[in-house]
Write a structure and sequence with these properties.
CATH architecture of the largest domain: Up-down Bundle
Membrane topology: Multi-pass membrane protein
InterPro entries: AA/rel_permease1 (IPR002293), APC_K+_Transporter (IPR053153)
Number of domains: 2
Strand order of the largest sheet: 5-4-3-6-7
Structural class: alpha/beta
CATH class of the largest domain: Mainly Alpha
Organism: Microbacterium pullorum
Order of helices and strands: HHHHHHHEHHHEHHHHHHEHEHEHEHEHHH
Radius of gyration: 34 Å
Pfam families: AA_permease_2 (PF13520)
Subcellular location: Membrane
Amino acid sequence: MALPIFASDALSSVAYAPQELLMILMLGGLSFLTFSPWIALAVVVLLAVVVLSYRQLILAYPSGGGDYEVARTNLGEIPGVVVASALLVDYILTVAVSVAAGVDNIISALAVLNPWRVELAVGFVVLLVAVNLRGVREASRAFALPTYLFIGSVGVMVVTGLVRWAVGDSPVASSAQFGVESAGLTQVAVVLLLLRAFASGCSALTGVEAIANGVPAFRPPQARNARTTLAIMGLIAISLFAGLTTLALVSGVRYAEDPCELIGFDCTLPQPSLIAQVAAATFGMGSVLFYVVQATTACVLLLAANTAFNGFPLLGSVLARDGYAPKSLNTRGDRLVYSNGMVLLGIAAITALLVFQADLTTLIQLYIIGVFVSFSLGQIGMVRHWNRELRLIPRQATLERRIALRGRVINSLGAVMTVVVLVIVTVTKFTHGAWLVFLAIPVLTTLMIGVRRYYLDVEVETAIDDDSVRFGSRGDVALVLVGAFHKPAAKAIDYALAAQHDTTIAVHVAVTPRETAQLAADWEEHHVPVPLMVLESPYRQYAAPLAAFIREYRRRHGSSVVTIYLPQYIVGHWWETFLHNRRARRLAQRLMLIHGVAVTLVPWLLDSSRLLYGRAARPMPGDDRAGHAAEYGLVTHLAPEADDATTGPPTPDPTASRPA
């Protein structure tokens, strides 16, 4: 069950890696296809070395940190953050490339969908985001079925095609009849073309690191089970990659970067993918097994995209925990998933698909840069790890030293090969779009280091020390902001009175004389037991006069604690937010910049908000208005009940009525 969960990304890459390899070679003409077996062999050797290297990484770091933990522990902060940046870019491109490849295979079976290629790709990403936000856990059986069907169907196709070739009945691809114009290339151009084809074929290595990142999910013994799964994954990936490449050459598949370069091909039609052409040549176009291969390939590619929705939010949460990313990425939603990270990944992947029009060939040029950056730094970090272990292991511990020496040899070979491939990928793909990744990784690294420095500064600024912390503020005043006298304002006053502050004052910022006069009349009519302070505002500002009043009050009365009560409407429909000016929140943001001030937003729930929270808007028992007021905590008698009918409203405290 671990194989389909962790290896779907690595296994799915064999669906497009042979295609990209042959496509680049065909830029030089059909004669260049003779180099493909040797280039494929180099990719297979590299894949085997990387798998062996990650087996050593799992042995040394069974906690599941992967390349980020290895680089940060052994190489320092900046290399660790560079690896994290590369992995974040890799996760984004994993979604974009896998979805684009999945849509490509769907269109290869149903060409009528070609005009909606971009829409289909974006729709699949939105679907993946929605499913993951719902907290649907990845059942291993749900992963196992399409993954093993993919392995089985492609395996049967490869064996069937090779057997037919061996008995003299070679399958013939539908594109075998098309020719390609030979390009007159210089010797240097030939070398660069071969290196570029090798770099494109190396996309078969994407996803190899997933098992090393997920070691804690395995059953005990975790490290051994993870290493076994990694070995099985490597054998399957090598077999499928080599088999598909061989069968594509045997059947004469022609796949061009620009379909119009194929002599005789109607380039107004979508170009079938390599795996679709091989399946049609082996089983017959439109056969049941053809559709099985295409359906399982599309499914496993979409599952590979879904694995990024586990890795990206998890890595984001680790970076947020370490202080390199915003804390919001470490927040779980109501479904216990890192929803902010999932939404961010979805937006980034959709942006990539829209910018590059879901074109697989273009996206592949960006893909493997981040992969080999993390590979290289991870392997270099492992070499330093084994060097340190060898210095610490006693001479007499022969078994431990033998394990460390073997690990150093394997990871040294992995480091050399991945660094060389990174250089090749950089040289051959830089002008084909890879420069975007080389721009994105330093920018992300700089941003993350800046975020880390910011959090360190905040930590130092807010740290407790004996000189700065003093208790014993004197005075407690409540200011209730009142624009007009209505139920929300009355509720805010009631809250302030219930808190029993030393002094409670209602404050009105006078913008128009008419509103101020009406408020004063309402205040006197309803006998409000709180003095009303009117602040003149000739320039129709709200925050500035209030801030000046607070500063003057604290200057006269000492270090009083000021609590400001602001009534606020709570609405139930999104469009209602545009019908209210939301002054309370804007004022709160300004007032919180004043020292010694605390802001309390007093909500008034409109009827529409009751529907939002699942309460039916039905008539209340008894009087409608009284029930509504009681539900929201509003006292129906705003002035205290008097024992005698002739008793008037209480007289405010004279000291409180003259605060300034």
